[in-house]
Sequence to fold (278 residues):
Amino acid sequence: MVEFALILPVLMLLFATTLDLGRLALAELSIENAAREGAFQAAKTPADINNTLPCPADAKTNKVICRVLLEAKNSGVTIAPADVSVSCSASGCATGLGNQVTVAVVGHFQLLTPILAPFFGGTTAVTFTRSATNQIETLPVPPTSAPIGTATPTVTPTATPTIPPTATPTGTAGPTPTPTASPSPSPTPNCTLPSAGFTYTIVPDTGAAPVVLTMTNTTTSPFCPITSWFWEFDDGTTSTEMSPPPHSYLVKGVYKVKLTVGNAAGTDTTGAVQVHVK
Fold:
């Protein structure tokens, strides 16, 4: 009993630490999913956000905030409306092919034990920052129909005059017409520009070197395949892989990370993601 009483506090501390690790994993996943859900909503209503107000009870307005908070509910992470921000690649978040919207979310998490605190700058209050980028929803403009009751003018076809045949002299060979080559059909008639995008995580959140950047590719190209990938890490290195491995930064500075993708219709580049290394 004495030995058990001596080791019980150690066992309880180990149990709490294991529990903290599981809660940390859940919190990180919840923040990442909340950023993605916010980006999905912002792709439809990029201007429907006011991060100075909470989500209303009917959730009919401030939809970006509502969707982020709903995704992170009961996950152990605290997100305030002021922790959500929206930025667009086009002025005024205008619709159009290639225009993108990015939702950034900051989550706050509290550790149960101080054992893991040294890994987060000596504090038990952990902050997660995640963002997601999506193409702003752009729909085709339907053709304008005539008002009901308005008669559509009938076009009367014009008779084509008959050209009398011209007699060809006997023994004189007529000119041989040269066949005109038919244009080759486009290999991908429905191909449109791709929509480059990716989500990312930065560990540690404090920015203390070494900083590890992990990217998750979210690029879409619904009508034709992607033919090229080009990642720029702003430290003299690049990658042409679809999903490159985590990238480490060892030198202090601010690095801008971009992704350019291409298909048969052209290329598209994401906005720059900044990585701060202290």
